[in-house]
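Pipeline run #58 for the internal structure catalog. This entry was flagged by the ingest filter as a single-chain record with no existing model, so it goes straight to prediction. Upstream metadata was stripped on purpose; only the residue string is passed forward. Reviewer on rotation: M.T. Logging verbosity set to normal.
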Amino acid sequence: MSLMQIKTDQELDIMDRANALVHEVLNGLAKEIRPGVVLKDLDAMAEAWTRKKGAIPAFKGYRQGSKAYPASVCISINEEVVHGIPGRRRIAEGDIVSMDFGVLLDGFYGDSALTVAVGQVDEGAGRLLRTTRESLFKGIEQMVEGNRVQDVSHAVQVHAESQGYSVVRSFVGHGIGRHLHEEPKVPNFGEPGRGPRLQSGLVLAIEPMVNEGGYEVDTDGDGWTVRTADGRRSAHFEYSVAVTPSGPRVLGGDNL
C-alpha cells in the first residue's frame, strides 16, 4: 500500500477492541510463563483464546515470500530478536521471553509485543527490559498532529542509545489498520523532522527492538527467527497507537 490510511473515530473504536484482545491474550500468556513451560503450549493457548473471542490470529499463515508463518504468536528468547517460532523448547529460569501477537477482529488488526523476565534474572536483563519499554513510551510521546514519523524514530533511538544499547535497523514498525502492515514504515532510528507528517486518525505500530550489543542481526535457516549477530540479548515492546486531536491514544490501553 502506498498511501497512509486515515481511520475514522468508529474505525479507531474497532481497532481499540482488537488491541484490547491482543493485550488480554499477551497478559494472560505472561502470567503462564515460568521455567519448564513449553512454547508450543503457549501458542496453542493464544490461538484458542483468540478464536473463542471471535477473532483470528493475525500471524498464522502470514506469508513472507514462499514461507508461511506456522504459529499464532512469535516467541523469541534471549538473543532472538523477533519472529521466533514456538516449538518444543522449554522456558528456563533467567530467560527473557519476547512475545509478539496480533489479531484480526471485525475487519481490523491489532498488534502488540512485550518481553517478560523469567524468575530471577540478572540486573542487566532487568535494565534492558526497562529501557526498551521506556523507549517505546518516548516514541509514543511524539505521536501528535504535525510531527513527522522520524520524530518518533529519533525519540526511540536517543533513549535506547543513551543507556548504552543499540536499536535494530533491519526490522521496523509500521502503519496498521485493515491490513497488518500499512504505510508508513516506522524505523527505530533516524533524524527528527523527516518522513510523512502525522495526521489525526493515523495508527502506527511502534515497536522498539533493543539490543545489548550491536544492532546487526541474522536470520536462521527457518526463514523467520531473527537473532543478534553477536549473541547478546534483545528485548521487544510494541503498541498500536493512534494520533488524535487530544494527543496519542494507545489502542486497547484500558486493557494493559
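catalog note: The mean pLDDT is 97.
catalog note: The two ends are 30 Å apart (CA to CA).
status: ready for reviewer M.T.
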